[in-house]
Amino acid sequence: MTMRKLIKTVVGVAGAALMASCVVACNSSETPETAETADAFRVHAIYNENANAAAQVQEALAEAAREHKRVILDFGGNWCGDCQILDFYFHQQPNAGLLAANYVLVDIDAGHLDRNTDIADKYDVPLQRGVPALAVLDAEGHVIYSQTTGQFAAMGRVDPAQVTNFLEQWKGPAGG
Question: Could you tell me the residue ranges of all domains in the chain?
């Protein structure tokens, strides 16, 4: 069974907590990924529930301006298996390199779709469509793109290449 199929199955059946233990335990000879890749997937706290999200966005915008990058706002919750999968895909190659070179990533806690709703509204991210939900901003804070239809809310059915395509599409022109 491939790692992608395993993740899909576990998310659908048992949720994020079981997914982490199964992914680590199921590193068999049938899995084409290396043990290092399988061990890299861990359910963890992506979203700081105590963070001042507005301040995080402002810091990210300042960094993006200095480094000629765009900002990705990732709204989600630590309870969300699809958010865990997106985070995993973000931190695997080639996506990790695309993120580092072109974006400042801000993980914003949406609670159970009831936290930081003012920030989501400001950047045209309809949390009621599900999480993870992303917005891409330029360094001045203008919305370049917003996932208004919950495109990544079912990450278990999203091909990892779609994440790469998303990052490529919205990275902006070279040098800013």
Answer: 3-40, 53-170
- Which of 10 and 153 is assigned the larger pLDDT? 153
**Six token digits for residue 55:** 């301040």
Q: Quote the tokens at residue 104.
A: 């400042």
Burial string for 47-58 (b: 16+ CB within 10 Å, else e) reads beeeeebeebbe
What is the dihedral angle through the alpha carbons of 66, 133, 10, 96, rounded to the nearest 10 degrees?
-20
**Chain segment 113-168, per-residue pLDDT in tens:** 999 999 999 999 999 999 999 999 999 999 999 999 888 989 988 899 999 999 99
Query: Which residues are within 8 A (CB) of 53 and not within 5 positions of it... i.e. 6 or more apart?
Result: 106, 108, 109, 116, 119
Nearest to 7 by CA among 92, 73, 76, 112: 92
Residue ranges with strand state E in 22-80:
70-76
**What six digits make up the tokens of 133?**
């939900």
* pLDDT band at residue 43 using 50, 70 and 90 as cut-offs: confident
Please name every residue paired with 75 in a beta bridge, in sequence order, or none if there are none.
108, 133
Say which CATH topology domain 53-170 has.
Glutaredoxin (3.40.30)
Q: Which residue has the tokens 């290396």?
A: 34
